[in-house]
Every structure is written in structure tokens, then in C-alpha cells.
Amino acid sequence: KAGVTQTPRYLIKTRGQQVTLSCSPISGHRSVSWYQQTPGQGLQFLFEYFSETQRNKGNFPGRFSGRQFSNSRSEMNVSTLELGDSALYLCASSGWDRGSLEQFFGPGTRLTVL
Amino acid sequence: QKEVEQDPGPLSVPEGAIVSLNCTYSNSAFQYFMWYRQYSRKGPELLMYTYSSGNKEDGRFTAQVDKSSKYISLFIRDSQPSDSATYLCAMRKGGSNYKLTFGKGTLLTVNP
Known about the structure:
The complex is a heterodimer of chains A (about 110) and B (about 110).
Chain A: E1 5-7, E2 10-13, E3 19-24, E4 31-38, E5 42-50, E6 53-57, E7 64-68, E8 74-78, E9 87-97, E10 100-105, E11 109-113
Parallel strand pairs in A: 2-11
Antiparallel strand pairs in A: 1-3, 3-8, 4-5, 4-9, 5-6, 7-8, 9-10, 9-11
Chain B: E1 4-6, E2 11-14, E3 19-25, E4 32-38, E5 45-50, E6 54-58, E7 61-66, E8 71-76, E9 85-92, E10 101-102, E11 106-111
Parallel strand pairs in B: 2-11
Antiparallel strand pairs in B: 1-3, 3-8, 4-5, 4-9, 6-7, 7-8, 9-10, 9-11
């Protein structure tokens, strides 16, 4: 079974620009979550989509948004980039296996804001 | 107080040592507990998944959960240099809330 894929793997943007990141979950998984990882704050939950609906949201400003398509692929958008948005953005694909909810992460997109 | 506390280390051990990694948490609503391993410049990889208090073993790894003390542990037996990575504890509440709350991670180095 193919794993979670994220594109692009690396991005360099300047302050004020916007960026769109993409995530393809494991086949059959309907839930996609997004996390931001920084050295100072660790892994922080951004939001979760299930069947094209945002089901849970973390404590991030409205500049961070996302969506999910009917094939479960998800995109995350950050508008008006700030230096502090430099981070590894991780996507997690969730599915039930033998009664357990397992959540698998992609390799991440490393965003650098200059 | 953060919901999940994890000693960031770093932790350095010789090859073959038993490694103990720990997390404490404050929210009694957490029901599911996980350990992830993250190599440098990679995404986290699920190692262990537990629900109830007690021990769960998988090869050289043992996960322990004590809900009464709000304390979870991961033990690595016969540690190998390939175990060198950051270990993250994660937990979530039940129901349709798939949000994971992570510890900051412990950086482990196993020296040959």
C-alpha cells in the first residue's frame, strides 16, 4: 500500500506571499490532518478534514486554511506569509485497521519564508 | 502547563543498552497513546499504539501506559545505532476527534 505523499517537499517564499501545499492520503483513508512542526513548539495541530468537511481545528490564525477533495486529497493554504511560518508542514492520513485508528504521516513539506 | 510533557533530552546511550522514554499528561480525556519515531528530515513513523493501561510489546519495543498516574513510557531493548532518532509521544481523545497532541520529542543517540 502506498504511503502518504506530500508535494512539494521544499518551498522557499518571501513574506507576504501565499503558498499551497498538497497531501495525498493512503488509499481508503478519508481523514487528513495537518500539523506544523517547529523546533520551538514541536508538532502542533492545524486542522482535520473528513469526507471534504473540516471536522476539527487548532489554534492557528485564519491565514491558515485547507480543503479536501472528493478523492480525499487535501490542500493547505497559507496566505500573507510571515517569517514565523517557516516550518515543516506534515500531513497525517487516518484509517481504521483491526479496531485501531492509525495515523500515518507523510514526509512533510519544508517551508522557508525569507 | 502543557497538556503533554516530554523530556527533550538529548539522551545518549551505548549500543545494547535499555532505553526508557517517558511522557506525562494532564488531560484525563486522553484515551489513546502512541509513540512515533522521527528521523532527521523525515516525517514521524508510528511505532506503537495503545489504548488501555498496561504493557504492549512489539519486538524490542514495549509501550507502557499508566492512566492513574497519567504517565506513559516506551522501552527499547538491545538498542541499535539505527534507533538514533527523535521519539515523540502522542495522544488523543476518543470519538471522532482525531487530533493528536504531541510531546516535544526526545532526541536519542545510540553509540556503536
